[in-house]
Amino acid sequence: MDRGTNRLASRSMAFVLAGGRGSRLKQLTDTRAKPAVYFGGKTRIVDFALSNALNSGIRKMAIATQYKAHSLIRHCQRGWSFFRAERNEYLDILPASQRVAEDKWYLGTADAVTQNIDIVDSYGVDFIVILAGDHVYKMDYELMLREHVESGADVTVGCLTVPRAEASAFGVMAVDDKLRITSFLEKPKDPPGMPGDETRTLASMGIYVFNWPFLRELLLDDSDTAGSAHDFGGDIIPHIVRHGHAQAHRFTESCVRHAPDAEAYWRDVGTVDAYWQANIDLTDFSPELDLWDRNWPIWTYSESVPPAKFIHDEADRRGSAVSSMVAGGCIVSGTEVRNSLLFTQVHTNSYSHLNHSVLLPFVNVGRHARLTKAVIDAGVRIPERLVIGEDPDEDRKFFEVSAGGVTLVTQPMIDAWSAAQ
Fold first, then answer.
1. How many whole angstroms separate alpha carbon 171 and alpha carbon 159?
2. Mean pLDDT of the chain, nearest integer
3. Best label site of 108, 116, 163, 374, fewest CB within 10 Å?
């Protein structure tokens, strides 16, 4: 891949907004922000935005954190510390540290950038790519940067094509036949259609490209504007639509596919059901998200752990995994694992059964336990003979059962269950 100075990415920085809790993930975000939630067996959600930037050729990055940031900061320090300042590479972690005023945390997505203008200035970049840190996808930002420059836009907005009936959950845009944005609406009841296809709508991905000098001035003006929420989707983008040139960029033009005819893969794993489904999808014979692509790898913190181990070979006590993903450090001891994803250092014990379940790191499953359609939080110890996922009414007494029937289990829930026995 060409890393030369002719690439626009070499003149750009990525600013990742990673401060959100992600409350729809329920107890999975009780101790960590949504971008720090585990995904795919060994990565975190934030790794996708960071890996896309790195693979695109961007070597200057900043991550704005706010809600329960320790897990996210520790992950970035351990897994993303390979940037070298002497090579003009940087990754700055920017907690909401009241740098501007003692009573002022990040007030909105745009304010997170405004409060760090001096840091962005120090990078000496021409372009800034604003990224949400809580989505799963592969995208070459260099292609979006090129389109931004060629169109002469003040802002270019990454967008998905979604069914119009489902678009009310997004920030959406109306465009003309040249994809110039004519209106930008946050979660409208009646989303606009697309030119030539009234059944589809363009929805914002929360990815924006700006010329830095232009955005810098706009942010300073917005910070002094009474009534502004200091938000990109709510204030900055609509202002540019009204007074400047806002351009839409289709994700299909820059997504990284594992095959020429593959669908463009993007997931908001912001609910327990969506999170479970996206992880379980990885156990398919040919998953839509290719984590094995060496040309566009997803970088992360790689622990030093031994290979996965499967032990015991008796009729009802056989360590086995079928249509599953099992990370390093796991010990599958006399357990039948089917259509499940086991993160690093999961240990399962004899006579237990796992089916369509996602087990986060350091989970321990006791003997004779049965888990079906479950998400087990990191570090949980499943007691012997506990059955989860077979009786939703019984599960609801102590655990979180989603609208789609996925049972979420955390250690405090297990402690409450154990105290009631």
1. 10
2. 94
3. 163
Nearest CA among 336, 365, 338 for reference residue 349: 365
Question: What gap in Å lies between CA 240 and CA 217, rounded to an integer?
Answer: 12
Closest CA to 289 of 245, 244, 259, 332: 259
Annotated binding site: 106, 171, 186-187, 204
pLDDT digit string (tens) for 356-383? 999 999 999 999 999 999 999 999 999 9
Indicate whether 316 and 260 sit together in one domain.
Answer: no
- Residue 400 belongs to a domain with what CATH number? 2.160.10.10
Nearest to 54 by CA among 82, 19, 93, 20: 82
| CA 417 – CA 335 distance, rounded (Å) | 23
The residues near 150 (Cβ < 8 Å, ≥ 6 apart) are none
Domain that holds residue 238: 8-279
| Residue 49: burial class (beta carbons within 10 Å; 0-12, 13-18, 19+) | buried
What value does the mean pLDDT take over residues 304-328? 96
Neighbouring-strand partners of residue 162: 201
Pairing of strands 12-17, 60-65: parallel
| 123, 36: one domain | yes
Report if residue 187 sits inside a domain: yes
Q: How do 387-388 and 400-401 pair as beta strands?
A: unpaired
Residues 127 and 16 in one domain: yes
Are 359 and 342 spatial neighbours (Cβ–Cβ below 8 Å)? yes
Do residues 247 and 321 share a domain? no
Binding-site residue numbers for alpha-D-glucose 1-phosphate are: 106, 171, 186-187, 204
Which residues are paired to 359 by β-bridges?
342, 376
Which is more confidently placed, 280 or 4?
280
With beta carbons less than 8 A apart as the criterion, state whether 180 and 247 touch.
yes
- DSSP for 275-336 reads HHHHHHHTTSSS-SS-TT-TTS---------PPPEEE-EETTEE-EEES-EE-TT-EEES-E
- Paired with 309 in beta bridges are 331
Over the stretch 248-264, which tens digit does the pLDDT of each residue have?
999 999 999 988 889 99
Q: Token pair for residue 60?
A: 């200057």
Report pLDDT digits (tens) over 11-34: 999 999 998 878 899 999 999 999
pTM reported for the whole predicted model: 0.94
Q: Which residues pair with 407 in a beta bridge?
A: 374, 401
